[in-house]
Amino acid sequence: MANDTIEIRRFDVHMDDASEWARFHRYRRLRDEELHPGEPQAADADFEHDARRRMPFHEAERFVAREGDELVGNLILWRRRPDAPNSEPFALHAEAWLGVLAAHRRRGIGSRLLVPLLAFMREHGKTVATMNTFYPPGHAFLEASGAVLKHRVVENRMRIDGLDADELARWKAQGTAGGALRFEIHPGRTPMERLAQLLAPFSDLFNDMPLGELELPPARYELDGYANWYRELDRSGGEHHLVLLVDADGTLAAMCEAHWDPRTPDRLHQRLTGVARAWRGRSLAKAVKAAMLDSVRALHPELRTVVTYNSEANAPILAINHRLGFEVHRRQGVYQLGVEALAECLARRGELAA
User: Fold this and answer.
1) In a structure prediction context, what are the per-residue pLDDT tens digits for the chain, which is 354 residues long?
2) Does 277 share its domain with 214?
3) Residue 353 falls within a domain, yes or no?
4) What is the CATH number of the domain that holds 60?
5) In a domain, 159, yes or no
């Protein structure tokens, strides 16, 4: 167990004062640099705005571990809002993220931060929490806490200065070969009425991706989610780029979407790429990826790097990304932790009695 100099307390993003926020920002900068050395960090005002804004589908609680005048660890808990549409399938599920500064590990602080996770799960009737980690200490901690590795994800990055323009042109041309399909490209924003038509096929594509052994309800793209995201993009000056391949009736065959943020103008964050089952085997994923790169590079010549996340089980998309020049930046393990396993772990460590 951690010694008595550690205090675990709730961090209230709406009620805590400027001194508490300053303490939190000092901690998060140290933690971010440990996890992502050399990477850009969110400005304090942007971080506070994101933490305080009301999310349409989820709500969060935060806890911190404090020693003296400084924070040494934190816990973030998410659940689907009970009043949100489609909340019933998520009733048993929670998500959690836990971190402890490297210099303060192996003192039982992580275990003490699991206590509010257990209380949260019991209070809201959750039976399983999903957690993830990129690094060996995180894997060891989660496994020792009773969590089970269910899925592996790869963060891939690509430098675009090595792209073969001729090959990209050939890939893009494959999308409309034969005349059955046409490109529909929305640079920066997509009209809400068009997004409304795409929610169901996007959801089908996402749910058709391999997710290992994760036990999760089916995902649903929601129009309110896009509306909320677009308001945030308007605030930051960000852009949502969407490339579609559709048939004569406008029915979706393939898609690729990406996000560009002016605060990191040299990067493009590629999101979902998918091909409808009836259209697979025709190189359409290559086509929409090539069209996306063409479209965004024309708007942002400062672009240097593309970042994307892929399931390790998704061999076809990994092969396409490798051909483009993506390289593995880091690997993520996704774990699930049952409420009873968590309670048994904390009882063994003496945390429940404490």
Assistant:
1) 446 799 999 999 999 999 999 999 999 999 999 999 999 999 999 999 999 999 999 999 999 999 999 999 999 999 999 999 889 999 999 999 999 999 999 999 999 999 999 999 999 999 999 999 999 999 999 999 999 999 999 999 999 988 888 999 999 999 999 999 999 999 999 999 999 999 999 999 999 999 999 999 999 999 999 999 999 999 999 999 999 999 999 999 999 999 999 999 999 999 999 999 999 999 999 999 999 999 999 999 999 999 999 999 999 999 999 998 999 999 999 999 999 999 999 999 998 754
2) yes
3) no
4) 3.40.630.30
5) no
The answer to whether 133 touches 336, Cβ cutoff 8 Å, is no
319, 339: one domain: no
Q: Hey, what are 53's tokens? A: 């804004």
Domain residue limits at 195:
164-324
Q: CA distances (Å), 167 to each of 84, 180, 254, 291, in order?
A: 45, 22, 19, 12
| pTM, rounded to two decimals | 0.94
Residues 61 and 177 in one domain: no
3-state secondary structure of 120: helix
